[in-house]
Amino acid sequence: MSDLLKDLFTVLSFQSISTDPAYAPEVQKNADWLVAKLSSLGLTTTLHDTPGHPIVIAQNKHAEGRPNVLLYGHYDVQPVDPIDLWDTPPFEPTIIGDKIFARGATDNKGQHMAHLKAIEQLLTEEGQLPVNLTVLLEGEEEIGSPNLVPFLEANKDTLPCDIIIVSDTGMVAPSTGTMGYGLRGISCCEVSLEGPNSDQHSGCIGGAIANPATEIARLVSSLHDNQGRVMIDGFYDDVEPLAEWERDMWAEVVGMDEASMLALTGAPALHGEAGYSSAERLWARPTAEVNGIGGGYQGEGSKTVLPSTAFCKLSFRLVPDQDPDDIYEKVKAHFEKHTPAHITLKVDKGHGGHPYRSDPHDRFGKVAQAALKTVFKNDPVLIREGGSIPIISDFKRILGADTLMLGLALPDAQIHAPNENFPIENFEKGVELGKTLIKVLGKL
Ligand code: BES
Ligand code: MN
Asked: Which of 16, 344, 351, 358 is least crowded, fewest Cβ atoms below 10 Å from its Cβ?
């Protein structure tokens, strides 16, 4: 294996699943490895414990008059289940063809490790960096970065920042430089319904009291009309209308046409809010999604039971200028309004994050586009993203800087899913991109 990939394979073997406390020691191992690695490059590196998972900070020697660049990534990953659907063990990185298969290969270890390699190579080749660099790697992105916001607020004086570099978003097609200038926000909650105080016989009792599973299904179906619009009062109040230039630009983006979307997902047809293209639905329109729904017997065969409870887990993707707390209140009010008296409702708030949008044509945006063009040889495709990285809007609010989102995730990277993968080419291009970008930023 090439030296370039060795470090990536090491970090891909850490089972740094942030959501499950059982894996906390593995998250810690990954953080410790990063500290050792960044220190070995000669950067001043510190590990910051939090009530959750640690934050890694590394800086070169800063000097007056040079741009302050912050490089962000996350070393935590999503759970691996359903484990049976993986063709190779998720924490034993495996090369098949020209791709690396492992949990975190794309999201986000492959992408931030490419940037760390870029820094390593620049330091080896030039002896120093042309910018004041701060590397910030966190272990809680996949659970909404609960401890990074307080960390930024407490440490903003030691995190000088004119511009932020993040590779944690998508690339529309292989070898196609893509710049993200927007992210959707998110607001999560869990809704549960309580009926009888224990499961009941569906014959002896069924028909005389409400069934929580039936009622949760009614609540879930109250979320949309048959045009795919979200039916929560006030949900669209703060939604910024789409700009014409974006509609025109996105109409041309490769991979967003009907045939590609169907091929990518295997769905029988496209479906979404009437009047919008797939790109518009994903990048500039808010949604209500059911992430999980349950209640009653889930095992083999039949069981004649009237469940005592039922639940659903929901996430709402938000666009400028929707506010996650405001949306949560509207969601809660919606369920309160639609829950009949014959059942008891409980709504628990989950994590949230603000949407983000920047100007892809400002001074830094132009530099990023130039770097992408140097590496990928195409005029970069400008997109917003359907996914969320909540900390990016917090960076803007707390550190005052915009983020250049230089995504290396391919549409079929299977992030958060079985058989997550990252092409070796993307890793290599990522290294080149990191180097090119630091060099051009150094000339600003
Ligand atoms: N890297 C993703 C976000 C992403 C992926 C953006 C592809 C654009 C294109 C990130 O790690 C992620 O999955 N974020 C979560 C955030 C949530 C848990 C707060 C998401 O979007 O579900
Ligand atoms: Mn992710």
From this structure: 344
